[in-house]
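Appendix C reproduces, verbatim, an entry submitted by the partner laboratory led by Prof. M.T., so that reviewers can inspect both the input and the predicted structure.
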Amino acid sequence: MSDLDLPTHVLERLHSARTITVLTGGGLSRECGVLGFREAQARDERWAAYEPQELATVEAFMRNPKLVWDWFAYRRQLIEPTQPSQAHYALVDLEQLVPHFKLITQAIDGLHWMAGSRELIEFHGCLRRTISSEDGGVVSEWEWDTRDVPPRCPRTGGYLRPDVLFYGEGVPMERVREADAATSCDVFLCIGTESVVQPAASLPLHAKRNGALVIDINPAPSAFTIFADYAVHGSLSELVPQLVHVFEEAGEQQ
């Protein structure tokens, strides 16, 4: 049952895999209708004239916190109705099929969590969460005063901000260490990610050096296609469930 037409040596590696790590990115988000930064700007003329450094940097937040808060509130409003795809749900199934699983995502839309993924590293944060700008702690409730935008953290008194990486901010080291540890795996899947942004771009290379089978599944050839052991291109909502079915078949045969 697969349009993947997997070579025998790839099937053998998949069937014997005990440890799987997945890296996902904007490709999955786009199939769900999530707009990118520039696409979101183009949707509303209020934002079209701004440069990214005016809306999504630490310096911008310090200079004009209300503008940055309003921009991300607008983006949060855009993603609110989006729902996980069949690819998201297939990865939830895959998490249940192997003894050791880790999902690393560069997407900030929270769709993996909504689908049910729990062994999850949200590398760049999640737009649906809010944190204190003072200590980075997650804040789920606060008193809303329309005269105070952004709202204040009830714990620290500092401004609240979205739990996403601003341009120029580094990925927190605990996430980097956890993701790098996950490159010691049997199979590493690159799904819907074309990014060459570090440190995520190095993860498949680290996995390959550690002996993992690297598979690239993207709508079109990506930077990872060059060194992947196997690459396939097309609809992620069709291809990812087909790949997960291969693991299901392996479990049935054991």
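DSSP finds eleven helices and eight strands in the chain. Additional entries are available on request from the coordinating office.
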